[in-house]
Design a protein that fits this description.
This protein is an alpha+beta fold. It has one domain. The protein contains two helices and five strands. It has helices at residues 11-22, 31-44; strands at 51-55, 64-70, 76-81, 86-87, 90-91. The strands form two sheets. The chain has a three-stranded antiparallel beta sheet, with no helix packed on it. It is globular, with a radius of gyration of 15 Å.
């Protein structure tokens, strides 16, 4: 059975993805930019069978992206991504 650990890594594709992410203006105070980053990352999951959820944190902030999946081999993953300033030592949206 082939799992993700058996897959070849395309270093050039990873470098290009990092370049594209870095090119998006996405300071914490710019929700549209933060959401553009999340849109790009969500696109990476298209066709993988992952379940994606977007949650609005609150006005003035970008969304929270959650991805959940299990491979045919039973390997599971969960992924959450957001960008919001800390308030009182706790990240907004953190539980």
């Amino acid at each position: 059975m082939t799992g993700y650990r058996d897959m070849k890594v395309d270093v050039d594709a990873i470098a290009e993805d990092i370049r594209r992410l870095a090119a998006i203006e996405s300071p914490t105070s710019h929700p549209a930019g933060v959401n553009a980053v999340l849109d790009m990352i969500a696109g990476w999951f298209e066709g993988t069978g992952a379940t994606l959820q977007r949650h609005k944190i609150r006005d003035g902030f970008g969304d929270l992206l959650k991805a959940h999946s299990a491979s045919p081999g039973g390997e599971r993953f969960s992924f959450s991504l957001s960008r919001a300033p800390k308030q009182g030592g706790t990240q907004v949206g953190e539980t």
